[in-house]
Amino acid sequence: MRVATETSQQGARRQELIFSFGPFRLVPRRQLLLLDGRPVKLGGRAFELLQLLVQRSGELVTKDELMAAAWPGTFLHDSNLKVNMWSLRRSLGDTQVESIYIATVARRGYKFIAEVQTSIAEVEDNLALAGPSPSSRPPLLRGIVGREADMADIADLLIQKRHITLAGAGGIGKTTVAIAAARAFSSQCRDGTCFVDLATISDPTLFGAALLTALGIRGNSDNSLAAVLEYLRPRQMLIILDNCEHVLPAAAIFAGKLMADTSPSKLLATSREPLGTVTEHVVRLGSLPSPRSGDALTADQAIRFPAVQLFVRRAAEWSDYQFIDDDCEAVASICHSLDGLPLAIELAAAQIGTFSPRELVAMLDQNLGFRGPSVEGAPPRHETLMATIDWSFKLLSQREATLFSLLSVFSDAFEVEDAVFISEATELTPVDVVTGLGSLVAKSLVTAQARGPSLRYRLLDSTRRYAAERRQADPACGQAQRHHAQRVLALYEQSEEEWNWREPADWTQRYLGRISDLRAALSWAFSEEGDPVLGIKLTVAAITLWSETSILSEAQARLEFALALAKTIDCDDLSKAKLACALGWSLFYARKMSNENEVAWLAAIAFAKRADDLEYQQRALVGFAFYLLQIGNVARAIAYLEESAELADRDRDSTATSEGDRALAWARAHAGELNQSREVLDRLAATYSLAEGRSRKDANEVYRFITVRFNLPFVAWMQGHADYAARLARDAVDAADRSGHWVSQSNALGLAALPVSLQTGNLDALESFTERLRRNLERERISRWVPVERYFSACLRDLRGDPQAVEDIRAAIGELIECRFLMRIGSYLAVLAHTLLRQGRIEEARETIAQAIDYQERQGERWCRSELQRVDASVLFHAGEPLRAEKRLQQALAEARAIGALTFELRIATDLAEHWIATGRRSKAIRLLAPVYQKFTEGFETQDLVAASRLLQRARANG
């Protein structure tokens, strides 16, 4: 909910010492590396290494000196240095084979070889604050070898075909080629690309959730695939579904539906086997070309073969290997024996530091047993890969092997602290873990990349599956999944605390990026082998993430399950109150208000009272009141809010207190207590401002700024301050737009901006706001606003002369009633009745306004009683009953004055004055209307004041 103001966007500037090389600028004091003026993300260790190398440009910096700079006072294996140097080089676009910046001095250290210039210059303060990475960003690619033709072919095919599946054995490079081809094709994708890593989910039922998360679709869609298709329908995107084989049926269903849809989006899938849809175009990815056995080649000739080139490049990265003519036959034999599989070649190349190429040939021939018995049903290349991984595993030390097996519990990328935590399930020490990670990266069994201030590690899909089998067979790893779940719990409990102070975008990036492990931990905890108490704690800890990111559908299912389970086992009442509150809010945004919502809120109130927790009692009471208002039970909502207000007197600093004050003012406004409501809302509006900072406190301030401004316009407009109401509503919409909080913006649009625009007759604003709400529903689908958007869109079309729009108005209202979104339904029906009258459909209008009055009276929404009476009077006039109509207008006028609704008073006075003028009572009409009109100080361009002014001018002119 961060707001980026003009001041904060520009940022302050300071004098800094800067080292410049190539397109890069290094700012040591800020720990900042800039590429063409934009921050480059480096791990903290990598930055220390770069700084030392740059400061000593042209000199040899020994391994010991570099280790001392990055890990002061710590002894670690030099594989950790290689991992971080590798990460640094990749960030600089450097390679061991073609060094531009950093050269390796074999067995001694490294040298920075680029020209470096030193200067003092100004740097903006906020450059270090890089924005969040989207969850759909594909992994970074290492140097791609020998796939140029494949990438070009697939990019070309994407122009012609809508669905391409890149099929091939594990480890053959499908993901790498797919990402590279997508980047080459990206200029053809108007709305960008989305990468969905299906290897991060083990449960096929999470396929839809993974799609929603990757696309950034939030809200509470009842059908995730339908929501995805609706989102993609107007968009031209490329969806990359990576690693489909273990969720093949789900992937095939989605692919079939997408291809049958009208969306111009395209699909690029990777899988060990085709998806099997009718429109699928399958591309089989072959292995890297390698020399034939027995070919007599020089090093220069052999390196032209992609398989050899890959082997040499990886060996050079980790072992300072120099390719010579004498090694050609052995390296060619290795590549040929490994069927040209890139991952298998990398695993073999990683052993060059320990074995020579000839020794590797002998070991492969002796130990891998490629010509031995096959794995039943496994294709030859898959068998080769598994055998190579198995061989690499057997070359590990016992500690490395245990660590490798343990790491398979992570569904996605993890940090060293995560690995240290889960290793407590064994006898591994933190030093074992740090050293082991470096070694596993060096042996290509684990990958590493810089994310934020540290390195993040990851197992590739094939290696993770192998490691998981080893973990499940190793008694020493029996507690790995429990420790993993405990680690995830610790992370999300930490997220609750950090939510109060961490910059919102940074918070979201950090914890949304761990959602795959959260899903895996929950699945284990609630399984037969799991721990339900731990699962409940995990669910509670994840509430903040689901709420902050509006992942409501997934949250609702998790919360329902956890709460039902919590009621059957020994669980504390505060946890149950938190679960019930969160469930109530997730249900609040569902398509249809059900009794489950009331059950959840009443349970939350009861649990909070039993826990004697003041804040959650208030939260539950306020939440339940909002639900009651939504279904049109104003009196009951006020009763619960008054109970919350009594609790607030005991703790005015509670977060829920201000929400309770706002909600009570909001409810009283609907009950017709406009003056009392306005006083509170004005006070709250003056309290909250648009903070310029980036803290959570500032974000909360902005949130409250927005929420008050979608309540206050409703009251201000009724009291005759139309311009002020419109300005407040637009301020709320714009503030929500800058903060990226689309739920709040939808609320501001539906509750303030759209009603005010419609009622004041500002059709341009009405068109703009309906379009904004429509866009919101595409990216964050909150079902409650779908029929509201349809209603206001239909009203706009009606006012612009579309005679068919009235049926769409009726249908939208019918959907609102079906879904039990009944707040203001009387007002909506009054607009429909007025529209029907304009078309001469008097009986339908009579039935409609009678229905509106019935809802208004039953719901206690006194605020609109006078307006409904006015419309009822219009029906009576059209039906030829002027005496009854005039009496009805007199009743409406008294009602409007009683609650202080000046806008309604003017409308009624205008209608009554027009009737009196038509029946020869011109002076009486002027005496009625003129004083009401003179009470207004603004809003003279609105349709109500324009109509009143014209009527007064006509009446006086005819005098």
CA-atom Rg in angstroms? 34 Å
Distance between the ends? 58 Å
Annotation, overall tally of beta strands: 17
Major sheet attributes: 5 strands, antiparallel
What would you say the CATH architecture of the domain at 148-284 is? Answer: 3-Layer(aba) Sandwich
CATH topology of the domain at 148-284: Rossmann fold
Instruction: Give the structural class.
Output: alpha/beta
Give the strand order of the largest sheet, numbering strands 1, 2, ... along the chain. Answer: 4-3-2-1-8
Approximate strand percentage = 5-15%
Low-confidence stretches: 1-12, 125-135, 370-378
Q: What integer is the average pLDDT? A: 87
Based on Cα principal axes, name the global outline: elongated
Outline the structure in words.
This protein is of the alpha/beta class. Among the domains are: 6-128, Winged helix-like DNA-binding domain superfamily/Winged helix DNA-binding domain (Arc Repressor Mutant, subunit A), CATH 1.10.10.10; 148-284, P-loop containing nucleotide triphosphate hydrolases (Rossmann fold), CATH 3.40.50; 299-395, no CATH class. Helices cover 61% and strands 8% of the residues. The strands form 5 sheets. It has a 5-stranded antiparallel β-sheet, covered by helices on one side. Strands 10-12-13-9-14 form a 5-stranded parallel β-sheet, with helices on both faces. A hairpin with a 4-residue loop joins strand 2 (24-27) and strand 3 (32-35). It is elongated.
